[in-house]
Amino acid sequence: MKHIFQSNILLLVCLVVTGFVRADADYTLMVYGDSLSAAYGIEESEGWVELLSQKLANENFPYKVINGSVSGETTTGGLSRMPAMLNTYQPDLIILELGGNDGLRGIPLRNIRENLVAMVSLAQKSGAEVILAGIQIPPNYGSRYTEPFFAQFADIAVALNLPLVPFLIDGIPQQPQLMQNDGIHPKAEAQGMILDNVWPVLARRLKK
Fold first, then answer.
1. Residue 135 counted as domain residue
2. Which CATH number belongs to the domain containing residue 61 in this structure?
3. Is 185 a catalytic residue?
4. Which helix (H) or strand (E) holds 192?
5. Distance from CA of residue 15 to its chain's centroid?
6. Which residues sit opposite 100 in a β-bridge?
7. Is residue 124 part of a domain?
8. What is the pLDDT of residues 33-84, one digit of tens each?
9. By residue range, what is the domain housing residue 159?
10. CB–CB of 62/26 below 8 Å?
11. Overall number of domains in the chain
12. pTM, rounded to two decimals
């Protein structure tokens, strides 16, 4: 969740297929998120999405992984990019991890929900299954906003019958030594913990 003023950088970001892809990959998994999934502040090879790609290859899951994450991305930006991403990569499975930057900007929850639901709808119409990843924002934004902000991810998952990763970086902010200096982004040492949060939900949706 890079800060607000980085929106212009989005146009410069290249999306890549991560390494360790099986030659006989039958399925495409796309991670569609913000800087928490875009390896912000660390080497791309250290990020949890790359670790996921390695794990899938090592365990003989026939998936290639597309990291469609952009630092600074909002749900509005994600929604605008979604049709082209779906058309280009035709993913079978999407991990949708957006909303944190909206929260940091104090965007109305109604707008965030509408964008997330619209992205899920587009993905499902294309034939992709969606896993929703929840996120929390720092408590200094006030409980009247932060609590319903976090709750909306579970609400959407229930309403749309989606598998949910309740909190993408669960267990990490409570250990300051695992966070970068901005207090928002996990260090490289914590990326395996993010994967551990995602894997139990994801594993139930994988095909071999």
1. yes
2. 3.40.50.1110
3. yes
4. helix 191-203
5. 14
6. none
7. yes
8. 999 999 999 999 999 999 999 999 999 999 999 999 999 999 999 999 999 9
9. 4-203
10. yes
11. 1
12. 0.90
The reply to whether 165 falls in a domain is yes
Q: Is 83 helix (H, G, I), strand (E, B) or coil?
A: helix
Residue type, 47: G
Burial-class residue 21 by CB neighbours within 10 Å (0-12, 13-18, 19+): middle
Does 120 reside within a domain?
yes
Amino acid at 140: N
Confidence grade of residue 3 (pLDDT, cut at 50, 70, 90): very low
For residue 3, the SS3 value is coil
Hey, which bits of 34-75 come out as E strands?
Answer: 63-67
From 34, 35, 37, 102, the catalytic residue: 35
- Which structure tokens are listed for 181? 């200096």
To the nearest 5 percent, what fractions of the chain are helix, strand and coil?
50, 15, 40
Residue from 26, 155, 182, 196 carrying the catalytic annotation = 182
Catalytic: which of 34, 37, 102, 185? 185
Q: How far is residue 2's CA from residue 183's CA, in Å, rounded to a whole number?
A: 11
Q: Cα(30)–Cα(83) distance, rounded to whole angstroms?
A: 13
Report whether 56 contacts 26 (CB < 8 A).
no
Tens digit of each residue's pLDDT (9 = 90 or more) over 115-133:
999 999 999 999 999 999 9
Q: Is 182 a catalytic residue?
A: yes
